[in-house]
Each structure stands twice: as C-alpha cells, then as structure tokens.
Design goal:
Elements (H helix, E strand, L loop, with lengths): L2 H49 L4 H25 L2 H22 L6 H30 L2 H32 L7 H21 L18 H6 L2 H31 L3 H33 L2 H21 L3 H26 L5 H31 L12 H27 L6
Length: about 425
C-alpha cells in the first residue's frame, strides 16, 4: 500500500473519529442541560412555596458564598484526578444527593430548610456540571477541532434547555408526577450521562491531548484588568449585566408568585417559560446576531441587551403583569445567552491571549458572583424604603439606572475597541 493511500486512510479515520467525538460531546452536553432543566424550575417553585419571593435575595447571597467555597475544592480535585474521573464521580454524587433531597422533601416540618438547601444545591449542580463538561471537552480537543465543532457541541445545551423545560411541564400536566418528583427524572438522566461518559472513556474517545496554551489562572487576574483600560471597560460592561440580572429575576419571581399559588401549576409555568427562553435564544443566535455583526458591528450587538432591557423595564413599570415580566426576563437572559455572549467573545480577540485568559478567569470565577451578591444586597436595602408591591415594580428604576451606566460604559468601550482594531500591529 502506498504512503499516500495510507495517509489518506489515516486522515479519513481521524476525521471520522472527530465527528464521533463531536456527536458524543453534543449528546453529553444535551443530557447535562436536559437534567438541569428538570430541577431548575422545581428549585424556584419550591422556594416560593416555603419561603416566598421576598427571601430570594438572601438565598442568592448564600448560594454565591457556598459556591465560591465549593469551586476551590472542585479545582483541587481536578488537579489531583483525571477530568473523566471527576466527571464520573460528580455524576454519582449528584445522583445520590438528588434521591436524598427527594426523600427529604417528604419529611414533615423540614420542607422549608430542605427547599433552601436544594436551591443552593441546584446552583452548584449547574455550575459544576457545565464547567467540568467544557473542561473535559477542552482537554480532549485540539484548537483547530474546537473551532470547527464547538458551535455544534454548544447547540446541544441550547436544545437540552428547550426540551428539558417542555418535558418537565408535560410530566406535571399529563402524568401523576408532582414537582418533587422532577428530582428523580433528573437523577435518571444523570444515570444515562454517567453510562455515556463511562463507555466513551473505555473506548478511548476521551483521551486528553497536550495543552496548547497558557493555563487559566484566576489568581492575579485582576492585575491583568487594571493594567488595561480596554479590559476594565469590558469587565464593567459584563458586570453591569450581572448586576441587573438579580433585579430582573426578583421582579419575575414576584410576578410568578402573584399569578400562581399552586406548587405544580407554578412549576409547570416556569418550566414552559424556560423552554420559550431557550427557543428565543436560538432564534436570535441564528437570525439576529449574524445580521447585527455583519452590518452594524460587534458593539451594536453588545448594546442590544441594555437598550431592550431598559425598554421592557419601562413597559413593566407601566403594566406590571406576568406577561410583561416574562418579556423583561427574556430581554435579560435571552439576549445574554445569545447575542451578548457571541459579541463579548469578539471583544477579546485584539487582546494578548495570556492577559485575556487571566482577565476572563477573574470575571467569570469571581466578578460574576461578587456582582450578583451586590445586586441581591441592593434589592434587600431598597426593599426597606420602597413600596415594592406584589410585582416589585419600583425596582424598575434601579434597572433603568444600571442600564444607563451600562450604555455609557459601552459607549466608552466602543471607542477603545475601534482604536484597538485599527492599530497595526495589535497591542501585546
């Protein structure tokens, strides 16, 4: 057999292997998000049932503090064991805890404490599973393969969110299942995820490749920020989004609580809403984002979220209904998951890769949680002086203030971005 023929066969075999791995990773991410959306709506509905919407900011603060401590432990495990071993161990641990929480929710007199702990568990569940998935995907993918397949792999998560919300709502409506039973459906999906990862590991499809770039280190990431006005402005823009998120979430939760008093009906609505949110995100990604980026530029993509959020907040202040609150929530999270995410990644392209890794690590691991705590604390402080009412309408003024600062920051960032892009060579 000739050398060229052997080379061609090797090339075809490698391409086939990459396709199989991409499909497996797509399926894996689909199952993770499918499982998460079984319990995402349940955790919120149960917390409303036993604590009421007014206590949500306290839970968000508790969750951020617990998550910050847990992430450090998780990273030490990743350093000590293989990523696949950590994935399998995490799946088993979450399966056991889900079954345990389901049994505990039937304990008389303990429902309030269990629902509080369960909400925090779901936050940890989502962060850990998603982070370890992408960590595993990064470790088994080469840079070129990642560029070609990550859009497809990430689509598995969007699809999982849509189907997860639909199936959760359908099970509550058409079967005898109740809200706490969604924990068991989540556990069942994680069992399938565990088996899939175990099988692929034994087939050798999760063999790690050597790292092609500098490690991502959170410590010292703030130093990379303060040395660059451009990176400071990026961080401020992204953290404005995180500051507004708990305010919008609080108003949405208050509106849901006022409209649905029955636990299962409330869970069903929240599940259906998350499916619609996922569909809107997909539609924006496919139809709006490419148009804006091509004809108006990346900064208009960044500007879309605060402008639409401000307009929807004004609409909610004028007509505080659940429908308008849901539109406002979609304006926040739907645009954040789609056009904002696609736009912000392009902002880092002109920056030196090492400084990008350091800055993003600080923003993603520390900044987001810190600003969510600040946003939650602002709600608690304002709740003492403002007549929030059942829909927390007056918090709309805070959202408008945040959006105003956000738009101002983006205006300053636009000048820095165009200066960076027009420089040749790009700054180190």
């Amino acid at each position: 057999m000739s050398t060229k023929s052997t080379s061609d066969q090797f090339g075809k075999s490698r391409v086939q292997s990459l396709k199989v791995r991409s499909f497996i990773l797509f399926s894996n991410f689909f199952l993770i998000i499918l499982a998460y959306y079984q319990v995402k709506s349940a955790s919120r509905s149960l917390l409303i049932e036993y604590w009421g919407s007014d206590n949500f900011p306290w839970v968000w603060i508790s969750s951020a503090l617990v998550l910050g401590s847990f992430i450090g432990l998780y990273h030490r495990l990743v350093e000590r064991y293989s990523r696949l071993a950590v994935v399998l161990g995490s799946c088993l641990m979450f399966i056991v805890l889900l079954v345990g929480f389901r049994l505990a929710l039937d304990w008389q007199g303990m429902e309030a404490s269990i629902s509080y702990a369960f909400y925090i568990f779901v936050d940890i569940f989502s962060v850990i599973l998603v982070e370890q998935f992408w960590s595993l995907a990064d470790s088994v993918s080469e840079t070129d393969a990642g560029r070609k397949s990550y859009w497809f792999i990430g689509s598995g998560g969007l699809l999982g969110g849509v189907i997860g919300g639909v199936t959760a709502a359908a099970m509550l409506e058409f079967t005898p299942m109740r809200t706490p039973d969604l924990l068991l459906s989540c556990a069942a999906i994680l069992i399938v995820t565990f088996v899939l990862n175990l099988a692929m590991g034994r087939m050798g499809l999760y063999r790690e490749v050597p790292s092609e770039g500098p490690p991502v280190v959170a410590a010292g990431g703030w130093r990379a920020l303060i040395k660059s006005r451009y990176l400071i402005l990026i961080a401020c823009a992204l953290l404005c989004s995180q500051l507004a998120q708990p305010v919008v979430e609080f108003q949405f939760i208050k509106a849901v609580e006022a409209s649905y008093t029955a636990l299962d009906a409330r869970t069903q609505y929240i599940s259906s809403f998350f499916s619609v949110l996922g569909l809107v995100s997909i539609a924006i990604n496919l139809m709006v984002t490419p148009f804006l980026h091509r004809y108006l530029g990346v900064m208009w993509g960044m500007m879309t979220q605060p402008v639409v959020l401000a307009l929807s907040s004004l609409a909610f202040m004028a007509q505080p209904t659940l429908m308008i609150a849901s539109v406002m929530k979609i304006a926040d999270r739907g645009l954040s998951y789609s056009i904002n995410r696609a736009s912000k990644e392009q902002l880092y392209i002109p920056v030196d890769p090492v400084r990008t890794y350091q800055a993003k690590a600080w923003i993603d691991m520390l900044g987001y949680r810190l600003f969510k705590v600040i946003g939650s604390a602002m709600i608690l402080v304002l709740a003492r002086w403002l007549p929030l009412g059942e829909n927390a309408v007056q918090l709309g003024w805070l959202t408008l203030l945040i959006c105003g600062v956000w738009i101002l920051v983006l205006g300053l960032l636009a000048r820095e971005y165009h200066a960076f892009v027009n420089q040749a060579p790009a700054p180190a």
